[in-house]
């Protein structure tokens, strides 16, 4: 038996002052010390406490949520904002020790309890081709229909660029692709390499709106199959090739432009110099690279993802400070010409995806399973909170490979 109610025991995990009500399966309720509650955390069964006892951090809470033994009544974004990213990292060691002692009997009773089946553990050498392929398959080879429901018609799984506050998600994704095209100065007859091309939307945008010959490369089998069919449907097969392959296996060179949208997060700190050097080698003199990726705001934030994100969402993902990324691009030979932070845009993008998930919940569950849908239900608002609190950022960096005379080919004042 516990020597405290379940709700009282759970309160320190969320923070004593967090405006959250805790309601538990034993009938207990814990109200915040001050303020009006913004949401209610519902501890539905002892299994939720068993997950917390096994991993007294965000991973334990995520396991309880993904498995359905813990839920939130109310807006998840508001709840996560209220507890400032599940403030268990700020719980004192003494409190954690007391909780561990109280939860020990529950942990013993559930000692054979494994994590939800949606959890993924990586195997093999870090960032080897086989391990990277496994990580990409875990996240992206879920169900193309599931992603259609969440991402909407644009089928772009990266930060949009909202022209204004009232723009739709589709308008903002088009604006993002147009912005990348402008920065790369795409023109008819050019050749572009699109690494980590996803469902091929940037590749098709470059071909359809700028007459560019594009090679798009993705490690996801499902993405490649979907994109290949869409390229054919749009009548772009003479301009766009979508290849299911590791970007490191691209042998072609002499590209006028390289688009890297949402791939660098999967590369890892140790591989960055090689990554940017490889992309540099693919460009002709005067060719441009646009690198678009999630970053940390400074060196004080850890590079490795939160345990929940690492196990359930993006295995082996690393987010690095923008200064480090710019330095690595520069060291590979690129002259840096432009940089901007779009973190507010990513928060809006994630909120739009979350709204799509909620609006299509039953079909999303039918496509991917309830556990996988609950992973997305948790991680997207959690990331939106991260962008809004400036714990993570989204940067676009534009670099150029100078010619032998040091010429960049840039106008004195680019339009973007």
From TrEMBL:
CDD domains: AdoMet_MTases. One of its GO terms (biological process) is methylation. One of its GO terms (molecular function) is methyltransferase activity. Its EC number is 2.1.1.-. It holds the Pfam family CMAS. InterPro entries: CFA/CMAS, CMAS, SAM-dependent_MTases_sf. The keyword S-adenosyl-L-methionine applies. Keywords: Lipid metabolism, Methyltransferase, S-adenosyl-L-methionine, Transferase. The keyword Kinase does not apply. Belongs to the CFA/CMAS family. This is Class I SAM-dependent methyltransferase. The lineage of its organism: Bacteria, Bacillati, Actinomycetota, Actinomycetes, Pseudonocardiales.
